[in-house]
Amino acid sequence: MATTRRDFIRIGGASLGAAAFGSGLFTNWWGLDPDRVHDPATDGDRVVPTFCELCFWKCGVLAHVKNGRVTKIVGNPEHPLSRGRLCPRGTGGTGLLYDPDRLKKPLLRRRGKRGEQTFEEVSWDAALDFTAGKLEEIRRKYGPEAVALFSHGYGGSFFKTLMTAYGSNNIAAPSYAQCRGAREVGFQLTFGSPVGSPENLDLSNSRVITLIGSHLGENMHNTQVQDFALALSRGAQVVVVDPRFSTAAGKARYWLPIKPGTDIALLLAWMHVIVEEGLYDRDYIEKYATGFGELKAHLADKTPEWAFTETTIAPETIVETARLIAGARPASLVHPGRHVAWYGDDTQRTRAIAILNALLGSWGRRGGFFIPVSMNVPKVPTPVPAHKPRPAPDAPKGTVYPFADEVLAHGLCDATIPGTGAYDFKGWIVYGTNLIQALPEPAKTVRAIQNLDLLVAIDVLPAEIVGYADVVLPECTYLERWDDVGPTPWREPFLAIRQPAVPPLYESKPGWWIARELAKRLGHADFFPWDDAGQMVEARLAKAGHDVARIKASGIVRGKPVPVTTEDGLELSFKTPSGKIELSSAQMAAAGLPPLPPYTRPEEPASGQFRLLYGRTPAHTFGRTTNNRFLSQVTSGNEVWVNARVAMEKGLSSGEKVVLVNQDGVRSEPVPLKATQRIRPDCVFVVHGYGHTSPRLQFAKGRGLDDAKLMTRTKVDPAMGGTGMNVNFVTVEKA
Amino acid sequence: MSAAAKRYVMTVDTRLCVGCKACVLACKAENAVPDGFCRDWIVEDVRGEFPRLSAEIRSERCNHCTAAPCVKNCPTGASHVNEGGVVLVTHNKCSGCKACIAACPYDARFVHPAGYVDKCTFCLHRVRKGLQPACVSVCPTGTLVFGDAGDPSSEVRQKLDTRRSKVNHPESGAGPNVYFLT
Amino acid sequence: MTPLLETTTTRANPQIDPSLHTWGWEIVIYLFLGGIAAGILVLTAFLELTRPDKPRSRAMRWMPLVALALLSVGMLALWLDLAHRFWAWRFYATWKVTSPMSWGAWILVLLYPTGLLLWLGSLEDGERSWLRGKSPAAGKSLLEWLIRLSDRRRGTILKLGLVLGIGLGIYTGMLLGTMPSRLAWNSALMGPLFLASGISTGAALLLLQKLDRGEREILVRWDALAMTVELFLIALMLTGWATSGAAGRFAAHGFLGGPYTAVFWSLVVILGLLVPLAIDAIEARRHLAFVAIGPVLILCGGLALRWVLLAAGQASAFRLLP
């Protein structure tokens, strides 16, 4: 069939069209169908600098706010503690801000018994009037000292002012006697300064880092982990002393799987080697220390061979590690620990650590401990309180803890049981601390509470303690409020502000407002001579000569660097009675306590029992964050670590549900077992902070195992009253 | 490797990584990753028998492979190679057939509740603005380094040249571009 | 001695961890119906190409339409499997040469006109009149044009049907077979295995229709041949895996002692292939009348094969090899 012109045009046209179409099959249709890079658009229209409160380190953050919502939180590059980077919890602040279980309205218990959670929602006026009324009644009947404040968190400063106005000095945080108190005392006695928070560690310049039980890397104190990593990248070597193969142990040159409770023996043996072999910093000791002779005599019989019998660490290893640690002096840091309330002889153990650091010459030296500096800001002038309060009854009658320089939280709790302390407590104000999980022997805490005339809980989330309150005052989160401004001791002077990124949700209020309203009702408005905390902070910053607008934009004001180590040119001085480093503590001797750390053999578990050890997980701040649904996407429960051989002998396998039963018969919740090579056969380990029972914590309730419940026994430190909690033994049973 | 060809890679320093999961959460926040899903994750390997143990911790994500099987298998062209070799999914081209998920040797992808397939994007939307990916930005140990391996002056190139490194399952043949420094 | 290893991961992505399960019953249904459709098209086209003058039963003439119907049900299942299904049109905005699924998308779509013309061309005059009567006035000239086209180009259409049918039968196997990340799919024999299974299940479905003797004899022989080839391919595939590296051995193990052993050997091999072959042999030997049990077992076996392979493949992630 002949091809006509028409046919030709038709065929040609069709072919061209097909080719055009066809080319689109392989391309993006000449850019008309591009592959756009998707932008999740989480950047905020506003970026507000503040500092975090998922834990108590106070890292500077930038809150991105878009359409009135905080979309994400990132690190503030200007802030010396975060340096633009965050631990997992910092990012998780949105999970707290938008936690559906947050306390929304003031609650009052008008009927029912304490703990039955028969709350009614009331107005702020009603709640505040009730609280102030009760406080006034207690003051009238028993005196202001009958009220105790338990406070943890930066916002608590306003409640401390309130208490000062009210007339009571009975202010405690579990972070002292239940956490780091012993090491503050140990270092204070030795160097004349506590360690403080953040710890004054020049980690990034350390050549050898020794961790006694500290599990840095699971404990995610941001700056310290950053510095630790920096040290590792510079070739620092690590010695980890821990019954468990922690994350830090995985980075270590030496992991010493020490028998729990025998750390002092190891420390003494190390010092024995270091002194014997002359590996200590002679010049430093000569110049700055006293008591060397007594120390040397004390160490004479603390040989590695002896230490081996107590610690199960081979003598050669003790010698090798002693030489490694000393060889790197003065840039050799033995970490002071943070949570040190272990065995009841914790002041002595931290003294031993302090003494060892002194022998290494690390205090005040690069790679050791820097001497922190602070930037101060003028205080708000407040009147002198009319009443001089009686001292805190935080020790049992007839007992004195000679070196306790903070009030003991558990002591206040005990004194709430009538007749226990010098006087009884009738009222508790609990700010941001879940005493039911933070204090050991929770059953005793509940018993104590029943004796109160008033329990006020000020909190963000309905933790267990809130359930026991008479009145609940909902505070807004750190992202919704101003807080006080004050110095943070660090290697450079700086001030950071906490300012709101978004207005308070629901009917929650900032702590400053709550404290001020209570003060007004109690006739102490003069202790809060300002209307708005933000204005108060700005005024003080302005008075100090700072550019307030710039601080609000950047979140921070930094001072000029000053020398913090001898290498920088700092002159060392020690606020001890002798003005020197006290290797042997005359103060301890005067108080009838051993001036040099003695070794006390720990109790052995009964057959079939294991020592219960506890610790942290990076994504959480113990019970504080376990309801946070965002953080819980990476970690949502705890498990019991048991030595793999022990598990096998018991016929238990990983993932199987087990129950822990302690020496007093207390049973834990069932949780999965982790059969692992990473722990000694004589102990078990769980992450602290799970096993919430508060029904209002909808996510956390019933999840995981509560180790605090199993701490029915404590061993009290005679020096400062701290409660050693690593002294409970458990059996492991199939659930 | 020629200096001209841009090739984005990431190095993960296993000596420094503590497995804190800041990277996991920062990615979720930056990229609005839905609940229950993650684009990056932590793997911890502990070897040995008590008390002789060693550990390695790795922050892992999509490897943006040079010969990505996901891209080869995608029938609609949604999975494609973008700037610097970054493998992306164009949402409005994805039919949700999941061939790419089956093809990935690392199981790095997942089905987003909206229907398309999702994964790590090396935060290309940030990189184009001169920022680092969210995980790199947040990492408190400095484990994560990201950049153009084709640029001899980049930090990432310096890491690759001066440190021993490995990739996950090199026998996949996919040519992963996330390197673990050991 | 390799040291003990404790490994943990924080990833728990739905459908991905601990092992992949993104493809479920929808894909099994599609693979099954697609295979049958492929078999029907291949067999009807091949039969006519090799015996053009022999008369055909009504069933054989209409089966291409049935194949298209089954294929449509399969494609509906496929569409339901898509997580982003209203973007399905994207399959047809491009052709990705390296993607077996893209090939499949185009083969599927080209099969419709081909199968339609194949069916039209098979119709007898009486059936065509009936069809003309059924069509609306507006479509009558189009219908005539289509019938003329299917008659005039009968040979081309038959060959096209054959090629596309083979393509349909083989591409899904190749799709699975070219994924080294799923060890129990990774074999070059997967494509031919799916084709052979498609032909045997297609033949089985054809055999359940009312056919004339000649057709039946040929189909029984082709079915038996297809099943024999299947068994042979399965043996080769397992041997190939078992004698290659760690990946292959892991894949083979799933069927040789691992979790899929019982289902695979009982449902797929014995009931799905060996028993029907035995029935064929007995029928041939004893000249017994045809019974439906054979084809029914073949169809069940074909379904089971696809279900087992889909499950085994997704469970055998490459990254789980030490």
> Which CATH architecture of chain B would you pick?
2-Layer Sandwich
Q: Mind telling me which CATH architecture of the largest domain in chain A this is?
A: 3-Layer(aba) Sandwich
Largest sheet of chain B: 4 strands, mixed
Order of SSEs of chain B: EHEEHEEHEEHHEHEE
Strand content of chain B: 25-35%
Explain what you see.
The complex is a heterotrimer of chains A (735), B (182) and C (322). With 735 residues, chain A is of the alpha/beta class. Helices cover 30% and strands 15% of the residues of chain A. Chain A has four domains: 1-38, no CATH class; 107-177 and 394-477 and 509-547, Rossmann fold, CATH 3.40.50; 192-372 and 566-590, 3-Layer(aba) Sandwich (Dimethylsulfoxide Reductase, domain 2); 610-734, Beta Barrel (Barwin-like endoglucanases). Chain A contains 22 helices and 26 strands. In chain A, helix 8 packs antiparallel against helix 11 (304-311) and helix 8 packs parallel to helix 13. Chain B has six helices and ten strands; from the N terminus they run βαββαββαββααβαββ. Chain B has a four-stranded mixed sheet. The mean pLDDT of chain B is 96. By secondary structure, chain C is mainly alpha-helical. In chain C, helix 2 (58-81) runs antiparallel to helix 3 and helix 3 packs across helix 5 (140-152). Chains in contact: A-B, A-C, B-C. The interface between A and B is large, with 59 and 48 residues.
List the main descriptive attributes of the protein structure presented here.
heterotrimer; B: 182 residues; alpha+beta; Alpha-Beta Plaits; four-stranded mixed β-sheet; two-stranded antiparallel sheet; 20% helix; C: 322 residues; mainly alpha; 11 helices; 70% helix; globular
